[in-house]
């Protein structure tokens, strides 16, 4: 299957998201498990998710979740302490 036909099929399935946006969203969701489950630096988390510039990682994360990765991590830590 060619790249353009794959893109068109994905776009038809996803409607609101393009293929690149969908892949980025999946990478950010995977990063969230690492952010909340480990103490890895954000640059290492970005690299594990194939985003090799931390600025792009932060920009993509903020575009989806409306907060920076560090704000998200602080919020999750507070929530974890409140649950205990």
Instruction: Give the C-alpha Rg.
Output: 15 Å
- Proportion of strand residues: under 5%
SS class: mainly alpha
Q: How is the quaternary structure best described? A: single chain
Helix content: over 70%
Unreliable residue runs: none
Q: CA-to-CA gap between the ends?
A: 50 Å
Counting H and I runs of at least 4 residues, what is the number of helices?
5
Number of separate strands: 0
Attribute tags:
84 residues
Topology of this protein?
Layout lengths: L2 H12 L4 H19 L4 H7 L5 H12 L3 H15 L1
What can you see in these coordinates?
By secondary structure, the protein is mainly alpha-helical. The chain is built from 5 helices and no strands.
Q: Could you provide a short overview of the structure?
A:
The protein is an all-alpha fold.
């Amino acid at each position: 299957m060619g790249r353009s036909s794959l893109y068109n099929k994905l776009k038809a399935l996803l409607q609101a998201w393009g293929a690149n946006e969908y892949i980025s969203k999946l990478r950010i969701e995977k990063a969230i498990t690492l952010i909340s489950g480990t103490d890895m630096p954000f640059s290492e988390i970005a690299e594990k998710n194939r985003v090799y510039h931390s600025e792009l990682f932060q920009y993509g994360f903020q575009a989806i979740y409306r907060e920076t990765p560090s704000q998200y991590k602080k919020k999750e830590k507070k929530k974890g302490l409140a649950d205990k």
